Amino acid sequence: METLKAIFKRRSIRKFADKKITDKQIKTLLEAAMMSPTAVNAQEWEFLVIRDKKQLIEITKIHPHAQMLKQADAAIIVCGNTSKEILPGYWIGDCGACSQNILLAATDIGLGSVWLGVQPNKKRVQDIRKLFKLPKHIMPFNVIALGYPAEKKKPENRYDDKKAHYEKW
Amino acid sequence: METLKAIFKRRSIRKFADKKITDKQIKTLLEAAMMSPTAVNAQEWEFLVIRDKKQLIEITKIHPHAQMLKQADAAIIVCGNTSKEILPGYWIGDCGACSQNILLAATDIGLGSVWLGVQPNKKRVQDIRKLFKLPKHIMPFNVIALGYPAEKKKPENRYDDKKAHYEKW
User: Fold this and answer.
1) Burial (CB count within 10 angstroms: exposed 0-12, middle 13-18, buried 19+), residue B41
2) Which pLDDT value is given to residue B98?
3) Among candidate residues B54, B69, B70, B66, the one with its CA nearest the CA of residue B132
4) Which of A141, B5, B111, B138 could be bridged to B134 by S-S, CB 3.0 to 4.6 A?
5) Which pLDDT tens digit goes with each residue over B39-66?
6) By the CB < 8 Å criterion, does A94 face chain B?
7) Residues of chain A neighbouring B143 (CB-CB closer than 8 A)
8) Which pTM value belongs to this model?
C-alpha cells in the first residue's frame, strides 16, 4: 500500500531548504520517469536536468510561476522527442505520465517538487527552446522544480463523487 | 522506497483472470486518480467506469487494440472536462498524470492494467464519444483496461543514459 501513500501524500512544494540533492537521487528520478508507459512503447521522452543556479534563475525570467526555482536545487525539463514518435501527438499524454512518476518518486525519497506547465503555452515553449537551444524535434513539456521541502503540507483528499460515472454518462 | 517498487514493477497487462474487482477497489483507483496535480488545480478530469460485459465488448469494436477488454473485469475511460479548464489545452497532460496514478494504484492493489490510447486519434475520440453519448465538453483521453492479471511480466529497466541531458542539450 506504500504507493497509494505516496500518491495521497504528494503535494506541490514551492519552498525548498538549502540542501543538496545527490546525483544518485537525480538518477533515481530519471529511472522512474523512464518506467512510464508510452504509446506503442516509443519511449519518446528526453530529460534536461538543470542544477546550475544561473540557469535556474534564467528560467524564472521566462516563466511567470517559476520563482521558487531561485531556491530549488534542481529542475528537470521533461521533453517530447517528436523524431521518436510512432503515433503523432501521443507524446503530450505520455510526458504527463512520466512527469507523475518523477513527482511520486521524489515524494518517496523525501524530496519536494512542483510541476510548472509549459506545453501547450506557445510562448513558454518557444522561450524554453530558445534558452536551452533545443533542436526542432525536442518539445519542452514542463519544468519540474526539485529540492528538499521547506514547507509541510497535509494530504488533501480531492475525491469527488460527481466525477465518477458508472456505465453511462 | 515502496513507491519506486510499484513504478518499476508496473507493466502493461493484457491477459486477465476470471476474478472480480470489488467496488471498493474501483473507488481506490478513482481516489488515486483524483490526487494527481492539474494546471492551476482545475481538476478538470472525469471518469467513466465500465463494468458491463456488453459495453466492454462494444469498445473492442471501435478500438483496434482493445481485444483484452473481452476478458477485462472493468475499464476506466479517463476524460477531460473542457468546461472546467482554467488554462486551455492542459487537460491532455493532466489526464496523462492521473492515468499514471491509476496504473500505479492498480499495481499496488494487485491488479493488472493497460492504457489504450484514444486522444489525439480523432476517429477513436469520435467513436468513444458516440458510443457513450458524451457531451461536447467531455473529451475521452484513454481507456484503461483492468483486471486480475493472468500473465506475469518481469520488470523491465528502460533507463537510457542517452535520454538524460545535463545543463545543456
Assistant:
1) exposed
2) 98
3) B54
4) B138
5) 999 999 999 999 999 999 999 999 999 9
6) yes
7) none
8) 0.98
Each residue of A57-84: pLDDT tens digit?
999 999 999 999 999 999 999 999 999 9
CB contact under 8 A, A5 and B7: no
Grid cell 483528499 is found at A157
Beta strands in chain A (DSSP E): 45-50, 74-81, 112-117, 138-147, 164-166
Chain B partners of A50 at a C-beta cutoff of 8 Å?
167
Closest residue by Cα to residue A168 from B37, B92, B116, B50: B50
Q: Which fold has domain A9-151?
A: NADH Oxidase (3.40.109)
A1, pLDDT greater than 60: no
Task: Return the residue in A101, A119, A134 with the most chain B beta carbons within 10 A, the one to mutate for interface testing.
Answer: A101
Query: How many residue pairs from chains A and B have C-beta atoms closer than 8 A?
Result: 213
Q: Is the Cβ of B125 closer than 8 Å to some Cβ of chain A?
A: no
Indicate the domain borders of chain A.
Answer: 9-151
Q: Which SS3 state, helix, strand or coil, does residue B110 take?
A: coil
ipTM above threshold 0.95: yes
Q: In angstroms, rounded to a whole number, what is the distance separating the alpha carbons of residues A63 and A16?
A: 18
Mutate to test the interface with A, among B5, B7, B81, B116 (most CBs of A within 10 A): B7
pLDDT digits (tens, 9 = 90+) for A17-35: 999 999 999 999 999 999 9
pLDDT at A58: 98
